[in-house]
Design brief:
53 residues; mainly beta; 4 strands; 19% strand; DUF1540; DUF1540 domain-containing protein
Protein backbone atom coordinates (compact mmCIF):
# COMPACT_ATOMS: atom_id res chain seq x y z
CA UNK A 1 0.00 0.00 0.00
CA UNK A 2 1.21 3.51 -0.76
CA UNK A 3 2.80 5.30 2.17
CA UNK A 4 2.06 8.78 0.82
CA UNK A 5 -0.62 9.87 -1.63
CA UNK A 6 0.34 12.99 -3.54
CA UNK A 7 -2.23 15.47 -4.81
CA UNK A 8 -1.87 18.90 -6.41
CA UNK A 9 -5.54 19.90 -6.06
CA UNK A 10 -5.13 22.48 -3.30
CA UNK A 11 -8.83 23.38 -3.44
CA UNK A 12 -9.61 19.98 -1.88
CA UNK A 13 -10.45 19.77 1.83
CA UNK A 14 -7.98 16.84 2.16
CA UNK A 15 -5.02 18.66 0.56
CA UNK A 16 -2.07 19.17 2.90
CA UNK A 17 1.31 20.93 2.69
CA UNK A 18 3.78 19.22 0.40
CA UNK A 19 0.98 18.18 -1.98
CA UNK A 20 -0.03 15.34 0.35
CA UNK A 21 -3.53 13.89 0.61
CA UNK A 22 -4.65 13.79 4.23
CA UNK A 23 -7.85 11.79 3.61
CA UNK A 24 -8.36 8.71 5.76
CA UNK A 25 -9.07 6.67 2.62
CA UNK A 26 -9.02 7.31 -1.15
CA UNK A 27 -11.75 6.32 -3.62
CA UNK A 28 -10.86 6.40 -7.33
CA UNK A 29 -13.20 5.28 -10.11
CA UNK A 30 -12.86 4.62 -13.82
CA UNK A 31 -14.98 6.64 -16.20
CA UNK A 32 -13.86 4.58 -19.20
CA UNK A 33 -16.39 2.20 -20.79
CA UNK A 34 -16.06 -1.26 -19.28
CA UNK A 35 -14.19 0.00 -16.17
CA UNK A 36 -10.85 -0.85 -17.80
CA UNK A 37 -8.93 2.42 -17.47
CA UNK A 38 -5.56 2.41 -19.18
CA UNK A 39 -4.53 6.02 -18.49
CA UNK A 40 -4.87 8.36 -15.52
CA UNK A 41 -7.08 10.66 -17.61
CA UNK A 42 -9.69 7.87 -17.58
CA UNK A 43 -10.05 7.97 -13.78
CA UNK A 44 -11.58 10.33 -11.22
CA UNK A 45 -10.91 10.87 -7.51
CA UNK A 46 -14.25 10.57 -5.71
CA UNK A 47 -12.58 11.50 -2.41
CA UNK A 48 -12.39 15.17 -3.51
CA UNK A 49 -14.31 17.60 -1.31
CA UNK A 50 -14.08 21.31 -2.07
CA UNK A 51 -12.79 23.43 0.79
CA UNK A 52 -14.19 26.48 -1.01
CA UNK A 53 -17.85 25.65 -0.37
Amino acid sequence: MAKDVLCEVNSCRHWSNGNKCAAESIYVVSHHDGNQARHSEETDCKTFESKLS
